[in-house]
């Protein structure tokens, strides 16, 4: 455990120093104080932890096994008839605890820190400047209702060019009515939208439709709608990047994309990767134990170098496989777990092979 946290500390320090040297000119230009710089990196650390936790687990297993070897403890264990599998139980248990915690950490805590980091970059560093108008918003309001908002004004809390399409509840493949709203404004006192001007089209049959004009009316007063789940808070969430959304909200974001007919392959891969990536800690533990417990010419230094190389190969393979998932060439779930499957197979084969030597 001590080796694991020491490895994390070292990697965090390296990441921060590299990023600091890269952005030092920008910090000086913006006249940031030491406190502001420390604040920025406090938001950055969770994202670093998300990436390096599997590498930290690998280093921990390497250092622990190397220490066992240096003090001939493995030799003593084998002489006493104690299998290495017995040693693996507490190590894998610790790895499983870290994995389960990482799913929660990556899925809920990291998005919150990312939101703070991006807000800091927008307001203090001038990156990704704040835009007061959010264009092209698609929302699945109910199972048979889709809302399309042409533009939303954050300051005035106004929606313009709004289309509410209500589908037939039985077939869901035909539109029963449609509301084309020129503008609607949020009334916080009533927690409802006030429609300034709208056209209601009811499709009675294949060749017949009726037209009705609505003015200065609240959504609650429209019988066909009565209430929509859309409010300013929900719309603002649509403006967040996927990495700013907790896992549950990210799933809702994907469902809304699919309901509006958009391709969500990239978002699905990212969603399932948040769940699959923490399991890399268990994979690296098995690989680290198998490499370190096999004494060859070159000793621990060679094993250490090979294992670090494998870690970066793993991360590289994850990024490459994600490209195929983003393009829709592979199933999103399979894409997210492919690196774990391949490297776990390699790790198990290598582990079993070393036990025969």
Structure, explained:
The chain is an alpha+beta fold and 357 residues long. It folds into 2 domains: 2-126 and 269-356, no CATH class; 134-259, no CATH class. It has 10 helices and 6 strands; from the N terminus they run ααααββββββαααααα. Strands 1-2-3-4-5-6 form a 6-stranded antiparallel beta sheet. β4 and β5 form a beta hairpin. α1 runs antiparallel to α2 (34-70). It is elongated and about 90 Å long. The chain starts with a helix and ends with a helix.
- Based on CA atoms alone, the radius of gyration comes out at 27 Å
The proportion of residues in beta strands is 15-25%
Give the overall form.
Answer: elongated
The number of distinct helices, counting runs of at least 4 residues, comes to: 10
**Order of strands across the main sheet:** 1-2-3-4-5-6
Mean pLDDT: 87
Strand segment tally: 6
Main β-sheet description? 6 strands, antiparallel
Report the helical percentage.
55-70%
Q: What's the number of domains?
A: 2
Question: pLDDT below 50 for ≥5 consecutive residues: which ranges?
Answer: none
Could you state the order of secondary-structure elements as H and E? HHHHEEEEEEHHHHHH
What structural class do the secondary elements suggest?
A: alpha+beta
Q: What is the CA-CA span between the terminal residues?
A: 28 Å
């Amino acid at each position: 455990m001590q080796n694991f946290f020491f490895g994390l500390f070292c990697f965090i320090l390296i990441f921060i120093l590299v990023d600091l040297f890269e952005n030092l000119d920008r910090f000086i230009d913006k006249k940031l104080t030491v406190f502001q710089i420390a604040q920025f990196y406090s938001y950055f650390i969770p994202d670093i932890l998300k990436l390096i936790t599997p590498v930290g687990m690998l280093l921990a297993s390497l250092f622990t096994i190397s220490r066992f070897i240096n003090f001939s403890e493995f030799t003593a264990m084998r002489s006493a008839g104690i299998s290495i599998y017995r040693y693996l139980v507490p190590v894998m248990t610790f790895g499983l605890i870290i994995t389960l915690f990482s799913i929660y950490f990556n899925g809920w805590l990291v998005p919150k820190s990312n939101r703070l980091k991006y807000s800091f970059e927008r307001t203090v560093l001038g990156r990704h400047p704040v835009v007061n108008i959010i264009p092209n918003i698609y929302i699945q309001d109910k199972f048979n209702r889709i809302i399309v908002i042409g533009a939303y004004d954050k300051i005035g809390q106004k929606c313009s060019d709004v289309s509410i399409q209500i589908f037939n509840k039985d077939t869901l493949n035909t539109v029963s009515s449609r509301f084309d709203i020129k503008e609607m404004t949020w009334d916080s006192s009533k927690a409802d939208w006030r429609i300034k001007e709208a056209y209601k089209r009811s499709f009675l049959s294949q060749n017949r439709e009726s037209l009705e004009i609505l003015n200065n009316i609240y959504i609650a007063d429209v019988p066909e709608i009565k209430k929509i789940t859309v409010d300013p808070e929900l719309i603002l969430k649509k403006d967040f990047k996927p990495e700013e959304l907790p896992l549950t909200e990210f799933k809702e974001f994907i469902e809304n994309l699919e309901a509006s007919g958009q391709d969500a392959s990239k978002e699905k891969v990212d969603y399932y990767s948040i769940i699959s990536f923490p399991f890399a800690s268990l994979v690296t533990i098995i690989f680290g134990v198998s490499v370190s417990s096999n004494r060859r010419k070159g000793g621990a230094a060679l094993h250490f170098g090979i294992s670090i190389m494998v870690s970066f190969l793993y991360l590289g393979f994850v990024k490459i496989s994600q490209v195929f998932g983003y393009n829709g060439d592979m199933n999103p779930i399979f894409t997210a777990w492919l690196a774990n499957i391949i490297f776990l197979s390699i790790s198990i084969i290598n582990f079993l092979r070393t036990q025969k030597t």
